[in-house]
Specification:
Elements lengths: L12 E5 L16 H5 L1 H9 L3 E5 L15 H11 L3 E4 L5 H8 L6 E4 L6 H4 L3 H8 L4 E4 L10 H5 L5 E4 L1 H15 L5 E5 L4 H14 L2 E4 L1 H10 L9 H7 L9 E2 L3 E6 L2 E6 L8 E5 L1 H12 L3 E5 L12 H12 L3 E5 L1 H9 L8 E2 L4 H7 L5 H11 L1
Helix pairs in contact: 9-11, 12-13
């Protein structure tokens, strides 16, 4: 990948893929600015060097045009925290966009509408990617957090336009490379959250890289199901995805107890005590102490995904306990994942970790050794 600072952007139309996939309140106001702030270094650099800055991003997973997933509130918040004037167009392609770009002067910032309002984005449509490319003179990929997606504005667009890595993307790769290449041991991976299908290959790859893998959340529940401790796996796709993973490895640690819930009632119990109609919504006190003892010995910790249903105070205690033990140790800690980062920010703990990645799945994929389509596209472009 070529460094953004190696090129002349003066008066050039620079199309920047950012990740402004931020949480919104019911009043459609941005409730967490972490991902916006993460891109400010790249935006400020381009502005200081007289580029015409055109920002594209997605927000959520819209089915067509959804008013509640417009980036308009994000434009307002970007303007507020950067003190830069930010113009917004309620479209991604078309006459309104072309007109707004033609009127831009050096240093101007323009945010376009949610790129996922077009189904062609997630379809990785080459014609759509080419249309996006025609908006700029130069393309900058700064959204590390979506680089594991094979989407038009991520992996396809670099085929049609001069392309470079943004400053945030470079920083993410540099930090994660240091974890990969010079990891200090013991190396503990903490993996939770709800998306087991997104994390099966990651768990498998971490079996070779990490010394211990601590599981929580629905990821852990699924493994407990697989071990026939807690129910059974009814989803055939999930079963096929995990059936060949060595969950009997001594490296893989699952909860021994949990907060077990049924409707409005909850109790603490061993995972083997769960009854029909109950769910494990958080790791329990014995598991917390067990995990804390392992984390205390770690020199490197990578954490992605909450330990329970953090939207409820009752089932967020495990996640908070893990956050506090990781952050209080003399280790190198890398944290990623939207829910995890949002939770850390809600507890004002952002500065207590060595590095907070803007990526969740992308971070795990990269550390576990998978190739990211967005980064591979930049590498191939540079080779050409």
């Amino acid at each position: 990948m070529k460094n953004l600072k190696e090129i002349n952007v003066d008066n050039k139309k620079v199309l920047v893929r950012v990740d402004f996939n931020v949480p919104l309140t019911s009043e459609l106001e941005v409730s967490d600015t972490f991902r916006i702030e993460a891109h400010l270094e790249t935006i400020k650099y381009l502005k200081d060097n007289n580029a015409k800055i055109i920002l594209i991003s997605h927000l959520g997973n819209p089915k067509g045009r959804e008013v509640g997933l417009s980036l308009k509130p994000v434009a307002k918040k970007l303007e507020e925290i950067s003190s830069f004037k930010v113009n917004f167009v309620e479209d991604t392609l078309g006459d309104k966009v072309n007109s707004a770009i033609n009127e831009m002067e050096a240093g101007d910032i323009l945010l376009l509408e949610n790129v996922r309002f077009y189904k062609e984005e997630e379809e990785n449509n080459s014609e759509f990617a080419a249309s996006l490319a025609r908006l700029g003179d130069i393309f900058v990929q700064d959204a590390f957090s979506v680089c594991h997606r094979d989407h038009a504005s991520v992996s396809q667009i670099s085929s049609f336009i001069e392309s470079y890595a943004g400053l945030l993307l470079e920083k993410e790769v540099r930090v994660l490379d240091s974890v990969n290449e010079g990891v200090k041991r013991p190396f503990v991976a903490v993996i939770g959250g709800a998306k087991i299908l997104n994390k099966t290959s990651v768990i498998e790859n971490f079996l070779d890289k990490a010394d211990v893998i601590l599981l929580g959340g629905m990821v852990a529940n699924t493994v407990l199901n697989f071990k026939e401790i807690y129910g059974e796996i009814k989803d055939k796709e999930v079963f096929e995805a995990i059936k060949n993973i060595d969950f009997e490895s001594p490296k893989v640690i699952v909860p021994i107890d949990g907060i077990i819930s049924r409707e409005n009632f909850s109790r603490v119990g061993g995972v083997e005590t769960i009854k029909e109609g109950e769910d494990i919504v958080d790791i329990g006190p014995e598991t917390i102490e067990y995990y804390k003892a392992i984390i205390k010995k770690a020199k490197t910790v990578v954490w992605n995904g909450p330990m329970g249903k953090i939207e409820s105070e009752i089932s967020a205690k495990g996640t908070e306990a893990i956050a506090r033990i990781i952050s209080s140790q003399n280790n190198y800690s890398v944290v990623g994942g939207g829910e995890t980062v949002d939770f850390i920010n809600s507890k004002n703990m952002r500065k207590e970790f060595s590095f907070i990645s803007s990526g969740g799945g992308a971070m795990l994929d990269y550390i576990s050794g998978k190739k990211l389509p967005g980064i591979e596209a930049l590498n191939k472009h540079y080779e050409r």
